[in-house]
Amino acid sequence: MVTVISLGGSIIAPGGVDEGFLKDFTALIRNLLAEDEKRRFIFVTGGGGPARAWQQAYRTISGGGEDEQADWIGIMATRLNAQLIKAVMSEWCTQDVVIDPSQVEPFVGRVLVAAGWKPGFSSDYDAVLLAERFQADQVINLSNIERVYTGDPRKNPDAKPIEHITWKDFRVLVGEEWTPGKNVPFDPVASRHAAKLGLKVICAAGRNLENLAKLLRGEPFLGTTIGGVSAG
Prior knowledge:
The chain is α/β, with parallel strands linked by helices. The chain has one domain: Acetylglutamate kinase-like (Carbamate kinase, 3-Layer(aba) Sandwich), CATH 3.40.1160. 41% of the residues lie in helices and 16% in strands. The chain has helices spanning 9-12, 19-35, 48-62, 67-88, 123-133, 167-174, 188-197, 209-216; strands at 2-7, 40-45, 111-114, 138-143, 148-149, 161-162, 164-165, 200-205, 224-226. The protein has a seven-stranded mixed β-sheet with strand order 3-2-1-4-8-9-7, with helices on both faces. The protein has a two-stranded antiparallel ribbon with strand order 5-6. Helix 5 packs parallel to helix 7 (188-197). The longest helix has 22 residues, at 67-88.
């Protein structure tokens, strides 16, 4: 069983590296691997605070800048985070960090770590491609929000949490275009491909490890399921 997790940069490194979270998160993963010898994980890392800070620096220095260059900066941040996860999980992860999901080698270990690929989308899209490649039926998207809302709850007090949403309705929420650093629950480009595949995506709070353990063990959990019933 392959579980694909898109591990948001906002929980790996909201500013600097969140060492406490990573220690507890990897301990949970080790426990799950020990419980079930058939379980395998693919982690796809986001860029987080460092990506946005360096992208902003580029845009400030260059007087606006180009999206492609900003994307490359974000991609490099995802690769730094991925190398950290690989190093911490080195006893389970024997393969190099995947930076091109279209050319990935067979998955031979228990943990595989991937990072950003190329401009035009976020690492969420890489997670969808890896789920497709290794025949996973869902992607778990962990970030700093516990559910998808009907609007931005920080700006709209009437925004309500969503338990389940079709891909069609979700794509109306997030739009169709990707811009570097765009802050949405799941990248529009990744959403388009996941909808095409009929892939289920679960959005949940990454730092709530008790809830994550329930999700990974197939127990009731708090989060938002996108698709699953209908590709939308």
